[in-house]
Write a structure and sequence with these properties.
Layout lengths: L1 E6 L10 E4 L10 H4 L3 E2 L7 H8 L5 H11 L3 H16 L1 E6 L8 H10 L1
Parallel strand pairs: 1-4, 2-3, 2-4
Length: about 120
């Protein structure tokens, strides 16, 4: 399984493979052409409520990981996760996010879930 994480603001590259946006909201200032997406999978993004709480600093990283993991148990998220696993077994999948923090973001948690 080949999964990578990249900011949607970074330039697309051939080694990205399938480029999948995993944010709930469209990233500001990025055109669809510039994003060069293969798919936008909102169903694996954190809920609006959780996203807002994280950005407001009301949720610790550990609590975020637990709550986001629980959200990924929803049937529509499970279908999307299965699709991501299939694509990753066929070649590279790059999870695209708009967040600035490259170390603690939902795509890191998503990659861990997909690799389990």
């Amino acid at each position: 399984m080949s999964l990578s994480i990249k900011r949607v603001y970074d330039d697309p590259a051939p080694e990205d493979g399938r480029r999948i946006l995993v944010d709930r909201l469209w990233p500001r200032g990025v055109s669809k052409e510039r994003a060069a997406l293969d798919r936008w999978m909102k169903e694996v993004a954190p809920s609006n409520e959780l996203r807002k709480e994280v950005h407001a600093g009301k949720v610790s990283w550990d609590e975020f990981r637990a709550r986001y993991g629980a959200e990924l148990e929803a049937p529509e998220a499970q279908e999307a996760l299965d699709q991501l696993r299939r694509w990753a077994s066929e070649g590279t999948v790059t999870l695209l996010v708009s967040v600035r923090d490259r170390e603690q973001n939902h795509a890191q948690v998503l990659r861990e879930v997909l690799e389990d």
